[in-house]
Write a structure and sequence with these properties.
This protein is an alpha+beta fold. The chain has 12 helices and 17 strands.
Length: about 375
């Protein structure tokens, strides 16, 4: 267990680091942030920001020297650099072996399958013909993925037999590939698990996510699923976190079929977009529990603070306008909690989110959408 005066370092300075900074203030934790640029979201608010190249091992070494434990707000790091830091005695949370499950999709699929956890049928792809051979056994369409670097729908191609040739050039430029069976999804779910190095866990209620073009646009907590599905999803999330050796928050994205089958889709070994609802909607936010977990401190309660919680993500409007200019009007939705990330506006960019805790899902979602629409400059729904 780390000292109350310990310093946590976070590599990356996006909105996740910014919201972790807010949680650190409440806990009295000193958070240092390694930013690529002085105007990164967290760098704008964190007084202990170091601006350097987190792709450089030397920069990582220098940053880690001022921290008791180092964690992350993204996956885009060289695994060899992380291994070198550990060899030099740097405490990383999560450790590189766990982080690899979020960095390498093929490694993730193999590891989870070996642990007996439900993943789609998959195969490594070395040449174009491997995709058709896989589909002969598992059917079309198939899902072709880059094993590294893809997120928010990038690096993923849903293909039929006639599509493979058209996307192949783009796909091979993305690096190593894996092909997976297409899962008939009824609902997309996510489970967040905070876990300490000692193996203590705190599991958040399973949430329902709405995806558009591969990006999560809405989250509902708790998910509108049968109690048995919710229970099994929570247990599967906990099993995944334990299987990969997570330290900190582990986000497990799941596919639920119409028959109630649960299949692991993606992992993140860090705070996650599907957990932003927890800032106002849970007793302990994912960001506070991430800090507690990486420090080895007791984990906080994860129960919801209301009957239903809705979060609507704020993506940059198509006209390039800045939603912050419309903030006062959005605050007329008095029960809406608006979070802006301090990022320059551009179309499609994640700029913030709105959360409402309500008496039921429909009421909470209606209010959150109303505030988000106002920020977008859209016609406000009745």
């Amino acid at each position: 267990m780390a000292s109350p005066t310990a310093t946590v370092g976070m590599v990356g300075a996006g909105q996740l680091a910014r919201m972790t900074h807010a949680a650190a203030i409440g806990l009295g934790v000193r958070l240092r942030v390694l930013a690529a640029a002085a105007d990164d979201a967290a760098a704008r608010v964190n007084p202990s920001t170091v601006v350097d190249d987190w792709g450089s091992l030397e920069a990582l070494r220098a940053f880690a020297a001022g921290c008791d434990v180092v964690t992350f707000d993204h996956e885009v790091l060289d695994p060899a650099h992380l291994a070198a830091l550990v060899d030099e005695g740097v405490a990383l949370a999560p450790p590189p072996a766990a982080k690899r499950f979020a960095q390498d999709k093929l490694h993730q699929r193999r590891g989870l399958a070996a642990a007996g956890l439900a993943v789609p049928a998959f195969a490594e792809v070395g040449e174009r013909g491997h995709v058709a051979a896989f589909a002969e056994a598992h059917g079309w369409p198939a899902v072709l993925k880059a094993t590294r670097g893809g997120y928010d729908g990038r690096g993923v191609w849903l293909v039929d037999a006639d599509d493979v040739a058209a996307v192949w050039g783009e796909a091979v430029r993305a690096g190593q590939l894996v092909v997976e069976a297409h899962v008939p999804v009824a609902t997309e779910l996510a489970v967040l698990v905070a876990r300490t190095a000692a193996g203590d866990t705190a599991v958040y209620p399973v949430v329902e996510t709405v995806q558009r073009d591969g990006i999560c646009v809405e989250t509902l907590a708790p998910a509108r699923v049968e109690a048995d599905v919710a229970r099994r999803a929570g247990e599967l999330g906990r099993q995944v976190a334990e299987a990969v050796g997570a330290v900190g928050v582990c986000a497990v994205e799941l596919f639920a079929t119409s028959g109630g089958e649960l299949v692991v889709n993606e992992l993140a070994l860090r705070p996650h977009n599907s957990g932003h609802w927890s800032i106002e909607g849970a007793v302990t936010s994912q960001f506070a529990n991430h800090l507690r977990a990486v420090l080895g401190w007791p984990l906080g309660a994860t129960e919801p603070t209301g009957a239903a919680v809705a979060t609507v993500n704020l993506l940059g409007p198509a006209d390039g306008s800045d939603p912050a200019q419309r903030l006062p009007r959005a605050l007329e939705v008095a029960d809406a909690h608006v979070h802006l990330y301090g990022k320059a506006a551009r179309p499609g960019r994640k700029l913030g989110h709105v959360t409402v805790v309500g008496r039921d899902h429909d009421a909470a979602l209606t209010r959150a959408r109303r505030a988000a629409a106002t920020l977008h400059g859209q016609r406000v729904p009745a």
